Amino acid sequence: MKISIDAMGGDYAPESIVKGINLAKKEFPNIEFQLYGEPEAIKAHLEDEKNIKIIATTELIDFHDEPVKAIRKKKDSSLVRAVKAVKDGEADAVLSAGNTGALLAAGLFIVGRIKQIDRPALMSTLPTADGTGFDMLDLGANAENKPEHLADFAILGSYYAANVRGVKNPRVALLSNGSEESKGSTMIKETHALLSNIEDINFIGNIESRDILTGAADVVVADGFTGNAVLKAIEGTASVLMRQIKNGIMNGGFTTKIGGALVKKELSKLKDTMSTDSAGGAALVGVKAPVIKAHGNSSPEAIVSTIRQIHRMLETDVTGQLVKHFEYKN
Amino acid sequence: MKISIDAMGGDYAPESIVKGINLAKKEFPNIEFQLYGEPEAIKAHLEDEKNIKIIATTELIDFHDEPVKAIRKKKDSSLVRAVKAVKDGEADAVLSAGNTGALLAAGLFIVGRIKQIDRPALMSTLPTADGTGFDMLDLGANAENKPEHLADFAILGSYYAANVRGVKNPRVALLSNGSEESKGSTMIKETHALLSNIEDINFIGNIESRDILTGAADVVVADGFTGNAVLKAIEGTASVLMRQIKNGIMNGGFTTKIGGALVKKELSKLKDTMSTDSAGGAALVGVKAPVIKAHGNSSPEAIVSTIRQIHRMLETDVTGQLVKHFEYKN
User: Fold this and answer.
1) What interface predicted TM-score (ipTM) does this complex get?
2) Are A316 and A164 in contact (CB under 8 A)?
3) Cβ–Cβ < 8 Å for B4, B52
4) pTM of the entire structure?
5) How many residue contacts between A and B have a Cβ separation below 8 Å?
6) Fold of B121-276
7) Contact flag A229-B177 (C-beta cutoff 8 Å)
8) Do B121-276 and B1-117+286-329 have the same topology in CATH?
9) Interface contact A230-B234, CB threshold 8 A
10) Looking at the partner chain, which of A209, A241, A260 has a beta carbon nearest the beta carbon of B229?
11) pLDDT per residue over B99-148, tens digit each?
12) What is A1-117+286-329's CATH number?
């Protein structure tokens, strides 16, 4: 297995990325890690060069770059070169913690779509109260979708949950504004009808965004606009609440502060359960090879989780299975 | 001022509703409260009948009823009769904690739309970290919307924030999947262009759902499908997190339990800040008179808040101002 890595992408790159790879290569001695970026900057954090290949690049795509323009102009950027390694057969999968839009565009235009799939989607494993998690897509690769796209998302998500997370017969639900079949926009109602007729998935009907974090479904399918809005609402609410609790305790009286110290362990355990760190990165699904986006602020541990996720995707050949599925679709 | 009240609607009706009115009539001695429902059941909780009018009804719309069918068939239900009182000029506004869909349908078909407004919307004042709150619409009165509808929502929300909440020159934002003007679906981009050209509102551009709870806007405009999904994602996340914290503390060791007891006050203060109880109910805006939906599980205090909100709507004649605004639109 060979994984190409954009060593320069992310808030704490290359340090966080390289330190993550130091850890990952102990866990996965059979993986070759190809690090794209500035050799000196990379080597400064690298423990040793066993199973490591460093490929020098001269350009950098940052968070301010306009995605499509950036991948066209900055051909020698660490991001574009790492993605191109997959296209050229030099690597089996690519990982970046850099500019999301640029990685999506590079995945789409350089790696390319699986035949019969019009619109690849961005998918993440989100945490649930019971710790099992669920896969949600599209989280914003598309600004709008048709029912046919969502039908593809259902299959992509179902294969992923079954293979990478080991969920048996994953329950696939459609995000709508009511659990009844009659609820939702025209687009959602048409999607409901399509999903009901796909034999290969275990479609359990509509789900409301209120219920997704409870573990009521293993895969939640949404159009890119709504999926993105729901994801950011979850993130925003969790962040505001945790900050409010922290502030309330910090600004509270003496007894509150003591109490805060005593519950600290529980709160940090909660933060771990609800954190996306351990679930790996967001996958661009529907393209010909795993293209994975780690959080911009990924810690070395989050990079290891993401390598674990990619390893599982390659080991199960979930992408190869999907290529076959869609090849025989028509 | 006369307010008609569906005394039988809600999880704890009529007890919670009537007890709320007992409190409200002390605060607002100039309001006549018209209670629609079963006289004996109402009287069992009523302190005295000063400023109270009880109107006997024989039917009940519950949460299982299909909204449009229910308002057509159950003409003598407390909900339909209370709404009809507004239509007939017997009351100035109506309040129900019952079936949301039925109240929306009754508001739409019985009270009727303001001239020039195609699609009334459901709006609530949601809590922010700083305690000021923001008004969001549409929260699900519509399953899909056109840009013209959202332009109306912007005006409805802006008048409401300015009059009922006393916000000077309310900042109106459009919910999208990026803050840049170029972000969003075709519908959202068209709406952005429309909102930029409305002179009567202070349009500040797009907002992501991640940022709405921080108080970055006073009014957030969304299509009914996305608004509903975002609202329920916020509610679901808050509920899961608070329950997780509670469980973590309850199932923790001795020190954690002690700590939990010490921070209890802060957590309950937080719950108050983030609670929608004090902000009143959800308003169906764009109809000819205030039609207000209180939470199904409203406490007597929540009913008082909702009466306060209705009082403010009537006092400022926000609906009359809107009728005038849209009358002169074309």
Assistant:
1) 0.91
2) yes
3) no
4) 0.92
5) 190
6) Isopropylmalate Dehydrogenase (3.40.718)
7) yes
8) yes
9) no
10) A209
11) 999 999 999 999 999 999 999 999 999 988 888 899 999 999 999 999 99
12) 3.40.718.10
